[in-house]
Design goal:
10k-s Protein, Hypothetical Protein A, Chain A; 6 helices
Length: 132
């Protein structure tokens, strides 16, 4: 009986710490958590961190797929726009929407880029393909 009570108490204690850990891990993906690393990447501050590189990777990936995202998130940056410019747009969006800083960086970045560069014409498969 004593061992059963001890096991139940240990299970309860561990389950609480697992929930707390999951919440803390989810927070690392928030826009607020990415604000400083994204700034560091744009300013090319050293040493580079994993999260600053991840910021660049998220924006770079969105740049590749922006026109193909669902209608409400699709964006079309002007020809010649680079990832540094896109990251600056994301930073500005997070700074000007503090009420959304708890949201995932991917969602905030897509919303920021869409707000800055909405697609002007309906999307088609041909407009996304590279032509020689």
């Amino acid at each position: 009986m004593k061992n059963t009570m001890l096991a139940a108490g240990l299970a309860l204690a561990l389950s609480g710490s697992t929930v707390a850990t999951a919440n803390a891990q989810d927070d690392w993906k928030s826009g607020g958590a990415f604000l400083r690393p994204c700034r560091a990447w744009v300013e090319q501050r050293r040493p580079a961190t994993f999260v600053s590189g991840l910021c660049a990777g998220i924006v770079g990936t969105l740049f590749q797929f922006g026109p193909m995202l669902r209608q409400e998130l699709a964006f079309c940056p002007p020809e010649g726009t680079n990832i540094f410019q896109g990251t600056r747009v994301v930073i500005r969006y997070i700074e000007t929407h503090p009420e959304r800083r708890h949201e995932d960086i991917e969602v905030l970045a897509a919303n920021a880029l869409r707000a800055e560069w909405p697609c002007q014409k309906p999307r088609s498969v041909q407009s996304v393909r590279n032509t020689p």
